[in-house]
Amino acid sequence: MAMITHFMGRIRGMAVQDSNAKHGVRLLIEDYPYAVDGLEVWEAVQTWVGDYVTIYYKADIHVKHDVELQRWWQEVIEKGHGDKKDESWWPSMHSIDSLASVLTTIIWLASAHHAAVNFGQYPFAGHFPYRPTMGRRLVPSPGTPEYDSFFENPESFFLSSISSPFQAILGLAIIELLSTHASNEEYLGQRSSPYWTSNAEVMHAFERFQDRLVAVERNINERNSNPKLFNRYGDVQVPYTLMYPSSKEGITNMGIPNSTSI
């Protein structure tokens, strides 16, 4: 649970561990759309991973004695993160719970967390004067000619300091591409082939995962229509949908692909 407390804003002072709270995490700001929706997505993924792992590992000793699994985890730490390999915070890989926790974290980072920071870029960064990609001039100091020029014509000074038209067009094309879902995108709870597994237990667990994601979408819709939740409803009534699992193709400001999609 320490992992999800971290991702939901513990470092920013937004959440604390609380065994009495739902999900084991108490949000210090209750109307925090990313965290509220994200906790539900996390729980759905965590339950699915737990169901899946326990089909193949019946006891902790089976995880500890899985040579291939242990070597993979060793490579993740020592080769994938060589500069951090001696840190004390690395979780062990000696139990079913530790395996499920690690896999849940990896899936979360590659799916929901990435979707939340990637697919919402275009509405905020698509207008370059609002969010330019560069600043080519320093803020002028009082008493300099540039300072006087800034006050004489702030708009002209601002436009001369940000991306050129060509750079803006190029940046906009990149942001549009990053924010667009492909027509063949696979989202959480989806598989392109019905034959991805022949294990009946796995399929039943996956169907339960799909049902949980449907419930997540229903809950998000309900919260987005609640006028008491100002941070997701507000005066302009712009819903928060970045944690909405499914989506259509194109720029939709929603949708969680199965893995990092760029």
Task: Write up this protein.
The chain is an all-alpha fold and 262 residues long. The chain has 2 domains: 166 residues, Up-down Bundle (Lipoxygenase-1, domain 5), CATH 1.20.245; 55 residues, no CATH class. A hairpin with a 7-residue loop joins β1 and β2. α2 runs antiparallel to α5, α2 packs antiparallel against α10 and α7 packs across α8. The longest helix has 25 residues. It is globular. The relative contact order is 0.14. The mean pLDDT is 91.
Main attributes?
mainly alpha, Lipoxygenase-1, domain 5, 2 strands, two-stranded antiparallel ribbon, globular, 262 residues, 2 domains, single chain
CATH topology of the largest domain: Lipoxygenase-1, domain 5
- For the secondary structure, the number of strands is 2
Poorly predicted runs are: none
Q: Helix tally?
A: 10
How widely separated are the two ends?
29 Å
At CATH level 2, the architecture of the largest domain is: Up-down Bundle
- Name the CATH class of the largest domain: Mainly Alpha
Strand content: under 5%
Radius of gyration: 23 Å
Q: Main beta sheet, described?
A: 2 strands, antiparallel
Walk across the major sheet and give the strand order.
1-2
CATH-wise, what's the superfamily of the largest domain?
Answer: Lipoxygenase-1, Domain 5
Shape: globular
The H/E string reads HEEHHHHHHHHH
Average of per-residue pLDDT values: 91
Count of spatially separate domains? 2
Structural class: mainly alpha
> What portion of residues is helical?
40-55%
